[in-house]
Amino acid sequence: MSLYVNLYALYGSKKHISKMSIKSLILFLAFSIPAFVFSQTKTANDYVPPYQSEVFFGTNMGYFPGWTDEDLATISKGDPSKGVEGIGSETLRPALFGHFLEQWGYDARIAAFKYYQSIGIQDIVCFIGEPSKEQRETKVYCPDVGPSNHYRNLYEPIWDDGQNGTPVNEGNDFALYVYKTVSLYKDYVKIWEIWNEPDLADRDFKGHSLAPPGTSGNWWDNNPDPCEYKMRAPVFHYIRTLRIAYEVIKKIHPEGLVATGGVGYPSFIDAVCRNTDNPENGSANKDYPLGGGAYFDVLSFHCYPHIDGSLKKWNMSKFKHDLFRHTDKAAQGVVDAKNRFETVLKRHGYNEKQFPEKHWILTEVNIPRIPLNNQLGSDEAQRNFIIKSMIMSKRENIKQYHIYNLAEASPHDMQVNLTEFNAMGVYSSLLDVPKYQMKLTDGGVAYKTTAQLLGGMYFDHDKTAALHLSEKIDGGVFSDNLGRSILVIWARTSIDNSEEANATFTLNDEWNRKDLVVANWEYGKTKKVSQAKSNEIELTGSPIFLFEPETKNIVSPNKTLDIVQMVNSPEVTVIYNINNGGFIDIDLINKSGKRIKRILDQKEVSSGAYNVQFSKKSISPGVYFVRLIKAGDIHLEKIVIQ
Length: 642
Fold this sequence. Notes:
Layout: H1 8-11, H2 19-32, E1 57-60, H3 69-77, E2 91-93, E3 95-97, H4 98-104, H5 110-118, E4 124-129, H6 173-185, E5 189-194, H7 235-252, E6 257-260, H8 266-274, E7 298-303, E8 312-315, E9 320-323, H9 327-347, E10 359-365, H10 379-395, E11 400-403, H11 411-416, H12 442-454, E12 458-459, H13 461-465, E13 473-479, E14 485-491, E15 502-506, E16 517-519, H14 523-526, E17 528-531, E18 536-540, E19 544-547, E20 561-566, E21 571-578, E22 582-590, E23 595-605, E24 608-615, E25 622-630, E26 633-641
Parallel strand pairs: 1-2, 1-11, 3-4, 4-5, 5-6, 7-10, 10-11, 17-20
Antiparallel strand pairs: 8-9, 12-13, 13-14, 14-19, 15-18, 16-17, 16-19, 20-21, 21-24, 22-23, 22-25, 25-26
Helix pairs in contact: 3-5, 6-7, 8-9, 9-10, 10-12
């Protein structure tokens, strides 16, 4: 599914700068960059920058009338100053479309990107492309479909030594667009995705994108027919956009990473890697020396296992498909999709021996919460899949995971035009919902639980191996640099159209501790945990989280405050992170802001993670907030007392 830029800015009162001020900015940037930068000739065949960040949990923002991009970022990340908790996302995947920036000014989204940064959003993935009508190529490669979707003048020189006031050739529309966009937004973006779903096979009626080698029209032995896929032009033109973007981005944003658009077909990536940007036939020569793999650091892919064939296998003896509609098979589908792409890249030398390996990001993923067209789908399946696919993505060194979508479609669309993509979202529809009064879906609660518990942590392969998990059990251990760990574990599902599964896990010496607590998928909503009663843990198909609350800081490193309630216990544990030492107050307040209980009064603390407990015995049931005040900054965390 394509991600649409928020149209709020189209009708807002945001002033955009004039062509003259853009020109002045470009001139300034052009001559502020050292000349040696523009002589760089290395490609991703020579060097791929390291990616060491543990920022992982992201969202596709979507478009919801009445909600600005800042609003959507708020309910994704959370903003204590607005009393919004969010779902704990660490990053986002917005867009900077060419047609939008041309109409409203290239600085039109600066305020939004500054806001993302101000609330702690990091390592943003931003996809670019989509020319204005004036920038679009007019050549028609598919008479029955329409003109190319590319920018015009792709094959004009990329650079002109500053002849027109910019280092890029202003006659190359795509190079100029990339230059102007990246110059303005480079301080806010980590990864630049080149087009969204460039291989979308929207008219591939014969299935050539999925056909195996040796079959008629397949994309392994034949270059994709321009009439079969989104770009409506030869694949060499997409390679050209990668090359232009790579050259321009690397010379003005050297620490930035260049990614393919979210792709779905390994056969398309094979075509990108086996061809150059030579417009004649994709062959190599002195002007077009390298295959497309030289022009991206990161492979961004999309995965919807309920529709991509992951959950079925043809049975010749029965002459029909065997079906595996359960979430362990679906989560494995994410891993299998990555492996299919990785096989292609390794075949073209991206194996750390001939050429550097690529990084991986998963920029659209989910299953619906409603069973449609005999596919996998239910509230239980969606929440289980989200947790399991997150765990397995981390295990497979996928650097970012962006759920599709931030919210579901409108109730009207759900009734009249219900598709699987309408029934994906961490929130129910935001249409006609008062600002910040949105409702989480079960899948959203599961996402929030996982993001809050595992944010900033890495998959610990050594500790996971030490668990000696049986074939009936899956999961893993996550750790951080402070020596804290969380175990996520579940019984593997195996029955078609069922989430039923059972297994017993025996805690080994490291985990067999009396103070171990258990949280389930609802933790992000309830903040409740229960005590692990023995070293024999009974598992179901729904993942559980085990940890030590006294030593485990349950707050993500980017979050200041969190709360743990033990089931059937009158005690509430408040956990807080302090970045800079000083005096703090912690209170319990009601929805009107009235103090109900003073928890800490002007306590002096140094940097670090702490916890404090209070009793809820004398407090009436209802919704309250724990409030932390430090040097004028206020942080709030909602708590429901029953």
